[in-house]
Design a protein that fits this description.
The protein is globular and about 60 Å long. The longest helix has 25 residues. It has 20 helices and no strands. Helices cover 65% and strands 0% of the residues.
Length: 397
């Protein structure tokens, strides 16, 4: 491993590029599915680049049907660019989806290095993200590009934030704010980057309440202003989804999604039973309350003894999933919602490894287990890709 010179960015990023490409080498011929129809194949608005500003002003351009309008202009613009290259040949769309995923994986490596991980540990963490089978849905399902593109911008936002420093306003701060805007213009959940930035700064030190308030920075106000501006632009859509025409009442949504946190935790740690349509149903109140109390108690017990990076990683997962607690969606759980939480899990796991490192595990054992684990994830990912070949293979799965 030392001979690979993993401390050199070019070496580490090159390995990420090669390994992730190998894992998804059998995905380029996969077809269209579900929302691809109204968003891409039957959407007349992406068939011309004559008015690119229209993607940012006309939310009805997002789909064939006006009632499916969404404000995700960067996703729509990227799809229009794909159409200009290959029309409805899926290969170019899959190439872009894979490049976005590779970019997100590389940014996670940068973030881990910024957080003090060694070259080998940062590469292992990034590879865990890049090869995790849960990422197969955002890579193979073309319309799910919104998830990976928003995640790419979220991680870029954090990388630039750490590069600038919490108190400074400079070029890196401007880049961070631009990436935050890019995340929100890719998918609504991109707004959670605000929470991640604040959580990171708050977790840099003792977690007692009296120490937290002084860690709030004037720079946080910049991100807050961008978030409020975005919510103002999306006020009509938010009111319809939460107040005017919710698909279920708020209490049922909250309790169901609290139950979903346990389901998501299992998928993150044991990615078995992945599905485009999980057999998951609205849960009874007492079952949900009991399970949530057990989870919260366990989490508090862990966090009291955990390092700041473990706290931040676990809080990352919950923060990214938090919008689903209050915004009722037709589909109760989805694999692609765990795309960004995987990065939080990686931060927590690598932070845990930093804590137990004094145990002096034999280097050969660590290397062997790490390589075997990555090979297993790569095989699982390669085996999952063909499921997305066409509608028959997807439903057969």
């Amino acid at each position: 491993m030392a001979g690979l010179q993993l401390h050199r960015p070019g070496t580490a990023l090159g390995l990420i590029l090669v390994v992730v490409c190998l894992a998804y080498a059998n995905s380029f011929g996969n077809g269209w599915h579900y929302d691809d129809a109204h968003t891409i194949t039957e959407n007349p608005h992406i068939r011309s680049l004559a008015d690119p500003l229209g993607f940012f002003t006309e939310r009805t351009w997002f789909a064939r049907d006006a009632d499916k309008a969404m404000f995700r202009p960067l996703v729509l613009l990227s799809l229009a660019l794909n159409y200009s290259i290959s029309e409805l040949d899926t290969v170019s769309y899959h190439v872009v989806n894979l490049l976005i995923h590779i970019g997100a994986t590389m940014l996670l490596w940068v973030l881990l290095r910024q957080m003090g991980r060694g070259p080998s540990l940062a590469l292992l963490g990034a590879m865990l993200f890049g090869l995790h089978p849960l990422c197969t849905e955002p890579v193979n399902y073309i319309s799910s590009r919104s998830e990976s593109l928003a995640s790419l911008f979220v991680m870029a936002c954090l990388v630039c934030h750490l590069r600038e420093g919490p108190r400074e306003f400079g070029w890196w701060r401007a880049a961070s704010a631009t990436c935050f805007a890019g995340a929100m213009l890719s998918k609504e959940t991109g707004i959670t980057a605000l929470g991640l930035i604040v959580l990171y700064d708050l977790s840099r030190g003792p977690l007692q309440w009296r120490y937290l308030l002084p860690r709030l920075r004037p720079t946080h106000g910049l991100y807050l202003a961008l978030a409020l501006g975005y919510l103002l632009m999306q006020s009509g859509h938010v009111n319809e989804a939460v107040i005017d025409k919710p698909v279920r009442d708020g209490l049922t949504q909250f309790m169901t999604q609290v139950k979903a946190l346990g389901h998501y935790a299992r998928l993150l740690l044991v990615p078995r039973g992945l599905s485009v349509q999980h057999q998951f149903f609205e849960g009874g109140p007492w079952l949900v309350v009991g399970a949530s109390l057990l989870m919260i108690t366990s989490l508090i017990f862990v966090l009291r003894r955990a390092s700041s990076d473990i706290v931040f990683g676990l809080a990352w997962c919950v923060t990214v999933l938090s919008p689903t607690l209050v915004v009722p969606l037709f589909v109760l759980v989805n694999d692609h919602r765990l795309y960004l939480p995987i990065a939080g899990l990686v931060i927590a796991l690598t932070g845990l490894w930093m804590d137990i490192r004094p145990l002096k595990w034999p280097p050969r054992v660590v290397t062997g287990v790490s390589v075997a684990g990555l090979l297993l994830l790569g095989v699982l990912t390669q085996n999952r890709n063909p499921v997305w070949a066409d509608e028959y293979t997807l439903w057969s799965d």
